[in-house]
């Protein structure tokens, strides 16, 4: 193992072991990343796909789960072993144009995602409280930016892990509605779908929402944030095992929520004859006449809870990418005066997203377009991750094994094929 990695890296101190009392407290960046995967943009995308395609694309859940785990495990490995974020590693290992391209891709996708999420959160807030949507959007954006900048990191990260419990709302909704489980199981494990441009575009959106570029940068950087600097113990296999459990727990929860949302939308709104749900809050509202106000309330609260988790992750991911590319001081564990550029990037990312909402961004189109854009921008970043994670000089004995390599590579290939097929079939 490289000397610099052995010197700098140490394990997530709460995650050193995942056995015993306080399991939830021991989960680290993986559970936050998995929950942030189901942001309001993702909820809107999964709802729309469930309504329009019914149960035909449920097989995407078991197909994407190991691929998402492979990509996130590789990025977590990079941060854990090297003690450096993904942006720093790209800057050190590749040409400048590669670095600039990677940062532009992730920042652009994140900004559009933030705008779409804020618009959905404001509308969802109106479903549970008498707050005008524009006022709600502004208050949410300012509140999340202030919390990310001013609240100490370890307290802030604990809050993010509790927001991850919002995923439970979607699993509860699934058990409130009437489901033909034999048909659901058949469509989940025996794919039956038409090969056409519409389905290929839907698959691009689903994959882009599940395996999103912002999660790559966030996962690696949070592994660095979670290092216990007071104990400079070297990484060993136990740290990697704990990291994998954390990543699997996070991505499994995210994909389970995806499955629940698609299934719920298909058997309720889709079965009622509707063919279009453009936003997450529309999905919540449409559930009320079909299965009662409790399902609507759970769905809306889930949007808010996951939005409160995902938007700071999106803004933080952009800030990590920019700061690491520019070699600035960065990290949520630093104070504002220690990393002014990093925190300025967080605030700017949220404010630009808020500005897009203010000038009339169409949330219906933005939700779906953000997912598709994530799907298109992910493959080149996945290629960089594969190269870095297999580097003997960078990771030494802890470089990715063949299972991780296969999963990550298949993710990149599949996410390249979906939009290309959609373009050729259109």
Automatic annotation (TrEMBL):
Query: Does this UniProt record's set of keywords contain Membrane?
Result: yes
Q: Where in the cell is it found?
A: Membrane
Question: What InterPro entries would the database entry show?
Answer: NRAMP_fam
Example GO BP: iron ion transmembrane transport
Q: Where are the transmembrane segments?
A: 97-115, 135-153, 160-177, 197-217, 247-269, 297-322, 342-361, 367-389, 401-425
- Record's keyword terms, sorted: Membrane, Transmembrane, Transmembrane helix, Transport
* GO cellular component term of the entry, any: plasma membrane
Kindly give the membrane topology term recorded for this protein. Multi-pass membrane protein
Q: Name one GO molecular function term.
A: manganese ion transmembrane transporter activity
Principal localization?
membrane
Q: Which PANTHER family match?
A: NATURAL RESISTANCE-ASSOCIATED MACROPHAGE PROTEIN 2, SOLUTE CARRIER PROTEIN FAMILY 11 MEMBER
Designated name of the protein? Unannotated protein
């Amino acid at each position: 193992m490289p000397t610099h990695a052995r010197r700098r890296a140490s394990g997530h101190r709460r995650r050193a072991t995942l056995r015993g009392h306080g399991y939830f407290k021991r989960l680290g960046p993986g559970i936050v990343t998995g929950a942030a995967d189901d942001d309001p943009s993702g909820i809107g995308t999964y709802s729309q796909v469930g309504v329009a395609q019914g149960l035909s694309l449920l097989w995407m859940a078991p197909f994407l789960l190991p691929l998402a785990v492979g990509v996130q495990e590789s990025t977590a490995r990079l941060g854990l072993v090297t003690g450096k974020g993904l942006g720093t590693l790209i800057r050190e290992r590749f040409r400048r144009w590669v670095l600039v391209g990677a940062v532009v891709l992730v920042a652009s996708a994140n900004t559009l995602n933030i705008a779409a999420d804020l618009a959905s959160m404001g509308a969802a807030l109106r479903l549970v409280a008498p707050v005008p949507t524009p006022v709600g959007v502004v208050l949410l954006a300012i509140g999340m930016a202030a919390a990310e900048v001013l609240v100490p990191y370890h307290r802030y990260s604990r809050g993010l892990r509790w927001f991850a419990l919002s995923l439970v709302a979607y699993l509860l909704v699934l058990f409130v509605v009437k489901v033909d489980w034999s048909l659901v199981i058949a469509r989940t494990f025996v794919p039956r779908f038409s090969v056409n441009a519409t389905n290929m575009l839907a698959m691009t959106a689903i994959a882009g929402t599940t395996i999103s570029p912002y999660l790559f940068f966030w996962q690696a950087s949070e592994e660095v944030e979670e290092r216990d600097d007071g104990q400079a113990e070297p990484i060993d296999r136990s740290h990697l095992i704990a990291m994998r459990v954390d990543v699997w727990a996070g991505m499994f929860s995210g994909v389970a929520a995806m499955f629940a949302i698609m299934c719920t939308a298909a058997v309720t709104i889709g079965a009622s004859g509707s063919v279009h749900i453009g936003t997450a809050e529309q999905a919540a509202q449409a559930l009320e006449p079909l299965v009662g106000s409790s399902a609507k309330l759970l769905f809306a609260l889930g949007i808010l809870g996951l939005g409160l988790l995902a938007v700071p992750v999106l803004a933080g991911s952009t800030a990590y990418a920019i700061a690491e590319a520019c070699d600035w001081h960065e990290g949520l564990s630093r104070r504002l005066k220690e990393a002014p550029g990093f925190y300025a990037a967080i605030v700017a990312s949220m404010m630009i997203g808020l500005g897009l909402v203010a000038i009339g961004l169409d949330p219906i189109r933005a939700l779906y377009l953000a997912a598709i854009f994530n799907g298109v921008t992910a493959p080149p970043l996945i290629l960089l991750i594969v190269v870095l994670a297999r580097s003997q000089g960078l990771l030494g004995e802890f470089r990715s094994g063949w299972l991780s390599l296969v999963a990550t590579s298949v993710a990149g290939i599949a996410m390249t094929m979906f939009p290309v097929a959609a373009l050729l079939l259109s």
